[in-house]
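subagent[fold] <- orchestrator: predict structure for attached chain, return tokens only, no commentary.
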Amino acid sequence: MRRSRAGLKEAVLRFFSPGSLLGPPRTRDLLRLYREYGLDPTTPHPRLFDSESLSHLRQDQLRALFKAMRVNEEHRVLSLGEGNGAVSRLLAKAVGCRITGVDLNPDLVSTARNLARVHGVGRLVEYLVQDVHALRLGRRRFDRLYANETMCHWRDKELALRKALPHLEPGAVVGIHDWLRGDRGGLDEGLRRLPGLGRLYPRGIWFQWSLSELAGLLERLGLEVLSAEDLTGAVDEGLRKSAAFIEALSRMADGRAIAAARSFREVLPAHFAWLRYGRIIARLPSRRPASGPRQHTAVQAPRGRAAGSRPTGRRSPRRRPGPPG
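subagent[fold] -> orchestrator:
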């Protein structure tokens, strides 16, 4: 299913709208939740992140990403596809750095701005309504860049990164968490094979690459890949625990929490076969080439490559078999 550019934008906006079945909660719902469960939003309590985001990579994995990126309070950080700001608020509270978050969805940006004040980090974060394929960041410069579970929705990953990289300082570090193509294909295929998941997730908004394809793109754009790690096993275990926890408290959980548990259960059979997860850490050279910006050969998006295949010369991560059936 191939959507037009306008159709893709509309589908993504609808899927991630606050208050939608699997979208982030509305501000008023979160304020009520804070009161009911005695959560102080100015703290980095893990239940805050779990409540505010349906990210499949949980707070401990985000902290591991920040640690691998060596973020400190002096850094200015750019976030592409920030969503409702849950990740940037966590980073601001944990490290104290300044973050600029970009997202296509104006409703999510509005929610992010409101919650930044509630969390006490309004002075450290700013949020812009922009498409990553057409960034307009002016003279802003950054020491770090992260993209958390968002590149799988970018139709032209090379274009988006080419728009962002000129705003990074020499030696800047890039951190990526993403949904990757599985051993048997991408999620569009998985949605056809798994009816329960197909009723929750839309088709035509998934542009998953393999771990090595993403790493290869970064290398071709002039970055040094420091690490590329498959996280599917850890995410699978974490989602099973999250679903079990919510189900154990089903009498206390609201409708959205029950929907979250259901979505976690439905996505589990897609793991390894049609959905993997990965983390990449990469770094720009410490100095610009004396002759000016390096010219790179255009990177072609993968088309029809066998699932799990990798560019020549890069080791494949150990693969686990897909789920039975």
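orchestrator: received. Logging for downstream: The first helix runs from residue 5 to 15. The chain has one domain: 5-283.
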